[in-house]
Amino acid sequence: MDTLVATTPTSVPASLRKLYFLRFAFAAVWAALLFTSADTLGVLSVTLLVVYPLFDVAAAVVDLRSVKANGGTEPAPSSALAPALSANIAISSAAVISLAVAATSVGIPAVLRVWGDWAVISGIVQLVAGAARRPLGGQWPMITSGAVSTLAGASFFLQAGSDDPTLRGLAGYAFLGGVFFLISGLRLGRAAKGD
Questions:
Q1: Long-range Cβ pairs for the range 106-110 (8 Å, 24+)
Q2: Lower CB density within 10 Å: C or N end of the chain?
Q3: What are residue 24's DSSP bridge partners?
């Protein structure tokens, strides 16, 4: 363990913490905005639905570049982490397109089903990435978040079949995910200090 700490680039926890805090702030603002427009698919809600996975793509690209800039060692080897981040980029990019189609032509039930698919698959990827980053510390919230995302995705399918589906559940999902990023960022800071 001492060898691992000695060879871990110190910039990784700092850059990862910043990314986690940014993701929390984005999720909190996004959730508040979506909650105000959750009953219909208007310009604001459709824009928000597309922007969320687009932001996820951007965050994963930044994360992947950071991993590669540190020589593929984080201490998680790039053989474990880079494929998970690349998969997240592909999955979230597909979600952007699918959500745009569902929101503009099909309706709220279709949006919930697409979001559910995305939540399940990206939750599994987040779980894998969090497990690969465990040596950094502060990753249990990310692992938990991945598991919760998978379960939440299944619940969106049930909501899609309800008599009066809304997007409120997506706002709660995003906010909770943001809280997990916040907790992980705080814990990562403590792990970096050796607490």
A1: 107/41, 108/41, 108/160, 108/165, 108/166, 108/167, 109/160, 109/161, 109/165, 110/160
A2: N
A3: none
120: its two tokens:
């399940």
Work out the angle between the directed axes of helices 11-36 and 168-193 (0-180°, nearest 10). 160
pLDDT of 152-165, one tens digit each? 999 998 999 988 89
Residue type (1 letter), 103: A
How far apart, in Å, are the Cα atoms of 7 and each of 4, 136, 157, 171? 5, 11, 45, 40
CA dist 45 and 35 (Å) reads: 9
Task: Decide: 24 and 46 in contact? Cβ < 8 Å.
Answer: no
- Measure the CA–CA gap between 111 and 57, rounded to whole angstroms: 19
Q: What is the pTM of this model?
A: 0.84
